[in-house]
Each structure stands twice: as C-alpha cells, then as structure tokens.
C-alpha cells in the first residue's frame, strides 16, 4: 500500500493531499496485485490510466498552445508526442518516487516489472487521473507545473522530428517504394506495441511503444540510422 512517507512527500514537495485516499491507492495498484488479493476487492489502475491519458493530453496541449505560439499545428503535435511518449512519463514517475509505491503481484515483481517504462508511464497517467477526480484540473496543472512543464520550457522535447515521414522521403526520392509497418505483438497490460518495418517486403527494423504510432516512429528511427550509415 502507498506509504505514509510517500504521502508526506506529495504534500511537502507538490502540495498534494488526497481527499479520497482510495483513489490514490487505486492509481498505484496493478492488475496482478488485484488478481492475487481477490478477497479484498481492490481495484487496479486501468480506468484511472484511461482518464489520466486524456487529462494529460489536454493539459499538455493547452500548455503548448499558449507557450509556443510560433509553432504550427504539425510542430505542436510532434512536440506533444515527444512529451507523452513512454520515455517521458516514465522519467517523471521515477523522479516523483512512484516505482516503490506500486502494488504488484508476486509474478510481476519477480520479472522486474516495477522498473518497466510502460508500467511507470501507466502509473503516471493513473495518478493524474486520480488527482483530477479528487481535486480537478487545477490541481493537475499545479502538479505539472512542478514536474513536466519545466522540462518543456528547458527545450527537452523540442526534437519534433517525424521519423516516418523522413524515412519515406529518403526511400522514395527516386520513385514509389513499398513501406509497411506490421504489428508483431500487442499487450494490454502494460500497454505496449511491437511493430516491424518492411521495405519492399524485407524486414528492416523493429520498434516498441505505448501505442502503435509510437512504435512505428521508433522502427522508422532505427531504419533511418541504418540507412544514414550506409
């Protein structure tokens, strides 16, 4: 269960005290833990993750719109994608001390799921979903002002390169070439996609991400690196 010291840290560092601590517990409870404690009727974080994903996308979109008026729609979209990708939110989860508070089943604990980036991203989203339900959007914004927004302002996410488009332009400079992305693996919990990139039916690279589009971008980036070295 979420520890007292962690709750104290939330209060002192971020000014957050949950009115409904049940929401806080739910945000840190993995489905594997629920399955191993069925008699206690715990709830896992999946629904809060769903809500938190939408809350964070709206909050980040609003922030980018207001603070980067010089960027066009495409640039804003790519920048937002860089921020909300697995690597971004998992880093914030670690900085906030989330990993140690996650309630995991013994099997997931054994395979090291606590440090899995996709799981940490899910928990970060679930936490913000819980915070939104408990205290509203203003509280979420205040939390992001102390965690996510400073890194945005520092230029951490200004690499807005669209690797899929760049790869397509590189390969099709002399004419049309068949480029195809195929899903190799999809897992619901934690949410993760693995795709393979094929060029003229030849497998060139693979990529993983928290959704299909993110995985495709990773695969395209890997392929671009290969081609640029040739």
From TrEMBL:
Swiss-Prot/TrEMBL catalytic activity: Endonucleolytic cleavage to 5'-phosphomonoester
GO biological process terms held by the UniProt record: mRNA processing; regulation of gene expression; rRNA processing; tRNA processing
Example GO molecular function: rRNA binding
EC number(s) given by UniProt: 3.1.26.3
GO cellular component: cytoplasm
Residues covered by the RNase III domain: 7-136
Lineage top rank: taxon: Bacteria
SMART domains from the UniProt entry: DSRM, RIBOc
Cofactor needs: Mg(2+)
Record's subcellular location: Cytoplasm
Stretch forming the signal peptide: none
Keywords: Cytoplasm, Endonuclease, Hydrolase, Magnesium, Metal-binding, mRNA processing, Nuclease, RNA-binding, rRNA processing, rRNA-binding, tRNA processing
Catalytic residue positions: 53, 125
Record Pfam families: dsrm, Ribonucleas_3_3
InterPro entries: dsRBD_dom, RNase_III, RNase_III_dom, RNase_III_sf
Family annotation (HAMAP family): RNase_III
Quaternary structure (record): Homodimer.
Family: Belongs to the ribonuclease III family.
Job description of the protein: Digests double-stranded RNA. Involved in the processing of primary rRNA transcript to yield the immediate precursors to the large and small rRNAs (23S and 16S). Processes some mRNAs, and tRNAs when they are encoded in the rRNA operon. Processes pre-crRNA and tracrRNA of type II CRISPR loci if present in the organism.
Protein name: Ribonuclease 3
Organism field: Lactobacillus psittaci DSM 15354
Lineage: Bacteria, Bacillati, Bacillota, Bacilli, Lactobacillales
């Amino acid at each position: 269960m979420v520890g007292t010291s962690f709750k104290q840290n939330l209060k002192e560092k971020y000014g957050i005290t949950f009115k409904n601590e049940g929401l806080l517990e739910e945000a840190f409870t993995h489905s594997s833990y629920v399955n191993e404690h069925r008699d206690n009727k715990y709830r896992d974080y999946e629904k809060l993750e769903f809500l938190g994903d939408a809350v964070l996308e709206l909050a980040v979109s609003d922030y980018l719109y207001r603070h980067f008026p010089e960027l066009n729609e495409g640039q804003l979209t790519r920048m937002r994608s860089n921020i909300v990708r697995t690597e971004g939110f998992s880093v914030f989860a670690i900085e906030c001390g989330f990993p140690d508070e996650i309630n995991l089943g013994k099997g997931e604990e054994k395979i090291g799921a606590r440090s899995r980036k996709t799981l940490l991203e899910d928990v970060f989203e679930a936490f913000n979903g819980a915070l939104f339900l408990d205290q509203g959007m203003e509280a979420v914004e205040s939390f992001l002002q102390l965690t996510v927004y400073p890194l945005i302002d520092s230029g951490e996410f200004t690499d807005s390169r669209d690797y899929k488009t760049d790869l397509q332009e590189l390969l099709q400079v002399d004419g049309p070439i068949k480029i195809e992305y195929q899903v190799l693996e999809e897992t619901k919990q934690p949410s993760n996609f693995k795709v393979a990139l094929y060029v003229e039916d030849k497998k060139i690279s693979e990529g993983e991400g928290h959704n299909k589009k993110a995985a495709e971008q990773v695969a395209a980036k890997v392929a671009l690196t290969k081609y640029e070295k040739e």
